[in-house]
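Hi V.,

Quick status before I head out on leave. The structure for the redesign project is tokenized and pasted below; the design run finished overnight.
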């Protein structure tokens, strides 16, 4: 039986030889449609983003798995002058990109850490938005192999067929501990135990469900950045933090006590911690978190992030 990934690969020839996208004229972003664009093709950064000389993080959503009346679920958009990477898509990334008049060739990459809907729930809406905004550049999606196969199948079930959407989706299965390169980013996934307890109860009954959860280390220039994804305990960050000084750790704070995070971070060379994916009761406790970090001998910066806030990290 042909898998969804195989079906997607089979459709690539149709994607590059011609598109059916519901639009007869151009793509609305200043670039003519490039039907024969090579797989490595990327459009230049939008002029308004060319002043990003380091790494800019836009925290699209900072809430945890509980629905928040004021905050969206997980999503962090990383931008440099060369590229862009969306870390998970539980937040309304499509709405943000449109509101900010960001060209539809952003993001260049999407990282899917695990299958919880507060991290994946708005991926299909993002793809639909990029289609209707006539994107042409490839979208590169990275994550656990089983998740990518299921996501490719889900997009087809959402009527977002490869021949229809007008741009190629390149699926990149990754394995923990094996570095991979895309553009200026050298990235390495690391496994977390976030779903281990759930797997112990349900994996036998649901063998087609993916219980993997991967965080991500990103090397850009001389700097290293770490995205925690979801954790069972901060000690699971050790493989990512042992490789050298970390300029910024983008870390969740909902599945373990606050003190345990900073106690573990004090053992490593972490310049700054950017807290996201946290419960509502922490929303106004940044000063308290900084005091806990100080008590646990963590000497780096501590930032409690809020939705739609951008920082150079």
């Amino acid at each position: 039986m042909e898998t969804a990934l195989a079906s997607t690969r089979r459709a690539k020839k149709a994607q590059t030889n011609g598109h059916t996208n519901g639009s007869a004229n151009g793509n609305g972003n200043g670039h003519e449609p490039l039907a024969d664009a090579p797989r490595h093709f990327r459009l230049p950064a939008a002029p308004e983003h060319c002043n990003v000389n380091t790494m800019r993080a836009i925290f699209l959503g900072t809430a945890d798995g509980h629905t928040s009346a004021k905050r969206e679920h997980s999503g962090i958009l990383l931008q440099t002058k060369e590229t862009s990477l969306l870390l998970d898509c539980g937040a309304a990334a499509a709405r943000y990109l449109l509101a900010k008049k960001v060209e539809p060739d952003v993001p260049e990459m999407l990282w899917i850490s695990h299958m919880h809907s507060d991290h994946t729930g708005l991926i299909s809406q993002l793809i639909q938005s990029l289609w209707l905004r006539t994107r042409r550049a490839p979208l590169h999606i990275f994550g656990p192999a089983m998740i990518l196969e299921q996501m490719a199948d889900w997009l087809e079930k959402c009527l977002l067929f490869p021949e229809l959407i007008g741009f190629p989706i390149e699926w990149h299965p990754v394995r923990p501990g094996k570095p991979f390169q895309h553009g200026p980013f050298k990235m390495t996934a690391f496994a977390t135990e976030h779903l281990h307890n759930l797997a112990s109860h349900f994996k036998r009954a649901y063998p087609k469900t993916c219980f993997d959860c991967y965080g991500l280390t990103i090397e850009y220039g001389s700097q290293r950045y770490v995205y925690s994804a979801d954790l069972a305990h901060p000690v699971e960050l050790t493989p990512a933090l042992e490789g050298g000084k970390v300029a910024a750790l983008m870390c969740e704070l909902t599945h373990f006590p606050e003190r345990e995070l900073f106690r573990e971070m004090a053992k490593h060379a972490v310049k700054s911690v950017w807290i996201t994916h946290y419960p509502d009761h922490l929303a106004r406790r940044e000063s308290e978190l900084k005091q806990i970090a100080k008590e646990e001998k963590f000497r780096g910066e501590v930032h409690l992030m809020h939705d739609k806030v951008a920082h150079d990290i």
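Above is the designed sequence. The CA atoms of residues 104 and 133 lie 6 Å apart.

G. will cover questions while I'm gone.

Best,
W.
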